[in-house]
Design goal:
The termini are far apart. The chain is mainly alpha-helical. The chain has a domain of about 60 residues. It contains three helices and five strands; from the N terminus they run H-E-E-H-E-H-E-E. Strand 4 and strand 5 form a beta hairpin.
Length: about 200
């Protein structure tokens, strides 16, 4: 009898435990699942932050590299432009000197052939044309008056005429100057060809 009572009591306790476990099982599962989900969310956020930081660092490095390359390229282009402008100025001075020497020699030859012969000063651009027979001095225009009398394309640096037109590009050199927005011009008065932005 005593054993049967013990068994009955044990069975009742087991049923109560089973019912209590059954009642507590959803909350236990929810707690365990919640912990795992929380850990998973934390890990995902951490991984996402790390990958985002890495992507930002890589893209910043790439952008810095591209910007430094472009800045270097622009500096090289600027250096080439500066050298080109200096070369153009030098070649323009040399051309002016050659024209001046040719005019001097023509005036000298004609002066020897025709006594008292001199060229008119307004036809030539040299600041001063000197010869053994005579000396002709050019009259320079005031810069303010020159600015006011500028034509569509400015004025000729050779003879200060405003009768200037765009010239056709000829050869690879002038096509190369197109990259730097430098165009050829020709004066209709003295036929001098020059370059300008």
């Amino acid at each position: 009898m005593v054993e049967e009572q013990k068994r009955a009591a044990e069975a009742v306790r087991n049923r109560q435990r089973a019912e209590q476990l059954k009642a507590n099982l959803p909350s236990l599962i929810e707690d365990r699942v919640g912990e795992h989900i929380q850990k998973l969310e934390t890990k995902l956020l951490s991984d996402f932050k790390q990958k985002g930081q890495k992507a930002i660092e890589e893209s910043t490095a790439v952008l810095n590299e591209q910007l430094s390359e472009r800045i270097e390229t622009l500096e090289q282009i600027s250096s080439i432009q500066s050298r080109t402008i200096v070369n153009l100025r030098d070649s323009s001075k040399i051309a002016d000197q050659k024209v001046s020497s040719v005019v001097n020699s023509i005036e000298k030859s004609l002066g020897e052939a025709v006594p008292g012969f001199t060229l008119e000063a307004s036809q030539f651009a040299a600041p001063q044309i000197e010869s053994n027979a005579s000396s002709t001095q050019m009259v320079k225009v005031d810069p303010q008056e020159l600015e006011e009398s500028k034509g569509k394309y400015g004025f000729c640096p050779n003879c200060t005429s405003t009768n200037v037109r765009r010239a056709y590009r000829q050869g690879l050199w002038e096509e190369f100057l197109r990259l730097f927005f430098i165009a050829p011009f020709r004066c209709r008065a003295c036929r001098h060809k020059f370059y300008r932005f």
